[in-house]
Design goal:
Strand order of the largest sheet: 1-2-25-24-23
Number of helices: 1
CATH class of the domain at 20-40 and 138-368: Mainly Beta
Mean pLDDT: 94
Distance between the termini: 42 Å
CATH superfamily of the domain at 20-40 and 138-368: TolB, C-terminal domain
Number of strands: 25
CATH architecture of the domain at 20-40 and 138-368: 6 Propeller
Length: about 375
Amino acid sequence: MALWHMPARAEPVLVQTEKVAVVVETLAEGLDHPWAVEPLPDGSLLVTERAGRLSIYRSGKLTPVRGLPPLWTKVQGGLLDVALSRDFQTDGILFFTATQNYEGGIGTVVIRARLSGNGQWLSHAKPIFRSSRPEPVDHNFGSRIAVAPDGSLFVTVGDQARPERAQDRFDHRGSVVHINADGSIPDDNPFRDGVDGLPEIWSYGHRNPQGITLDPSSGTLYTVEHGAKGGDEINHPEPGRNYGWPVIAYGTDYDDTRIGIGTSTPGMEQPVHYWDPSIAPSAILFYRGDMFPEWQGDVLVSALKDQLISRLARDSAGRITSEERFLTEQFGRIRDLKEAPDGALLAVTDDDNGLLIRISRAAGPVPATHAEP
């Protein structure tokens, strides 16, 4: 099978963080705006590219996976996130988020498929969710997936540059949706009967949430989402709750004007944490690996604009107490961040010469000449 990309030959980079020295290896380069990396049980990696390509990284090579359905691949749209079903080792089921053209517009979709032929192709690919009222707008699609312990999916949907739609419970824009693995509606959804909102909606009032995760220790759902010029947020989406966009927000709009009515109002939730000015967060995880015991329970957030990883320490009650930033402007816009089975971190960078990188523990302290400036 032909290769999409040859593995990179760059030398590993040593970086001293506050608590531990790390080594950053470039596994592959030349990717076209990669959006997600997902470890497989056999140690290989799935990588999505926004241009509409899915590849598998195995034995130092990236090879294409065939069988994706037609996608709309322009500007911020295309093939986006990928996640494994809870029973992947037996059923081989994958879930993708992507953008497609339907009903006269562009919308966020969730596609279910089976990985077959030792990772060579997809079979039985079909959409199990399509966002409502698609429009010809090319950005703010959101589009991350978190798979719950019961196998259901939490999926972020951006406001698609229509802020007012994030307050409309009969519109999927600016929401977290919750669906079963077959696209049906879970019993615990707040608007399951469709009377007060769309049955798929879990929470609403979000702007462009591009990261979502479940805290492994508590099962609590968290998102990270883009603000405008300021006001990037970490939120804890709860069923039926309103997270404020665009009525309340931290930071300012791109023209430095105030957004909405301020930063708070009754009936709208406050973020767990926010950044002002914006760092443009793209993915979030709670570190639980063995490789970096110093980071146990910390929140790790990757960022696009500020080109970094933010490590947020928490106290015993789960409150964020401090922030460390590392890899700043060393590898470019970091689009996704995942924990590998061995506790290393995996990331991809958003560029037309995008990278697949691995971050692992260094053998000892980093010499001053190699330390991050």
